[in-house]
Amino acid sequence: MKRxxxxxxxxxxxxNVSNAQEQDDLTLAIKNIAKDLESKHSGANKIxxxxxxxxxxxxxxxxxxxxxxxxLSLAYKNSTRFExxxxxxxxxxxxxxxxxxxxxxSFEHNEDFGKFIFDQLGYVANALIYGQIADNEETITLxxxxxxxxxxxxxxxxxxxxxxxxxxxxxxxxxxxxxVEPKVVYVEKEVIVEKPVIVEKEVIVEKVVEKEVIVExxxxxxxxxxxxxxxxxxxxxxxxVSVMFTGNKIAINIIVQNDVEDGYxxxxxxxxxxxxxxxxxxxxxxxxxxxxxxxxxxPLRGVINFENKEVARVTEMQALEINxxxxxxxxxxxxxxxxxxxxxx
Length: 345
Prior knowledge:
Blueprint (H helix, E strand, L loop, with lengths): L1 H39 L6 E10 L6 H13 L6 E3 L2 H11 L9 H15 L5 E9 L3 E10 L6 E8 L2 H7 L13 E15 L2 E15 L12 E5 L2 E11 L2 E10 L4 E3 L1 E7 L5 E4 L9 E3 L5 E7 L9 E10 L6 E11 L3
Parallel strand pairs: 1-2, 1-3
Antiparallel strand pairs: 3-4, 4-5, 6-7, 8-9, 9-10, 10-15, 11-14, 12-13, 12-16, 16-17
Helix pairs in contact: 1-2, 2-5, 3-4
């Protein structure tokens, strides 16, 4: 029974780490594309960019598109060259105009759509970004195009990475089974060696017992994730994975997941008290959990920042309070509180 429990715990840990690793790998590939497109754009001034759709080779629109749009918006959030136009507004314009990937290679079509954006929103989209997802069964090829306004050429960036249970889910395919089978086996052997010792006519038999224990080490799993602080609001599970100094501010890394349905978070704000009773606040604009759409069962990572210059002397949060908002105004999902949180320097 004890060995069965050990096997179950190790398997569960490996499964959770595997899911987090799959999301990290996919996020890294999209960040590489974002960085590549930004570096290849030759303009010196900051431009407004509209992120359009990423469809499959057979022109299907899947949840993969939402994931890519969110990650690109997050990658360009602090960019000095690209400013992403409100994604909800662009998605509405795509639907009302009838823009599709199969028309994207037409210069006239893209120019007309750019004028449509200007007519509806009142400002010019200096560049359009769209792309294609190629499912090669064991690998995924992600191709992204950047089209500068008024120029008949494309800037291309391509990333190829391994398929996973996460990419299957985002593509709407049957999810592949994980092949991780970590196990711990204890084998005990008892060897009895009889050594006769002859002294004149007396025969003495000595029995020597040797024990050999062979332990097979469990599969080493990289990037272990330890969770200390958890909370739940409705169907939303929240997890604080780290609280540390980054530059001259305190950054709280938090993961949120909804296993019941797709979700939406308008924004969060937070405050904490140090052991001396000093209060520090973080508004909606100081974190990355702003206007975020969740996919059912997929963890979403965000950061809450405290940038007050006085935080440099804080070593512990005696109490942390986080408010989660469902929509603009006062409609809230709820409030979380955590206590005695160490701050890593």
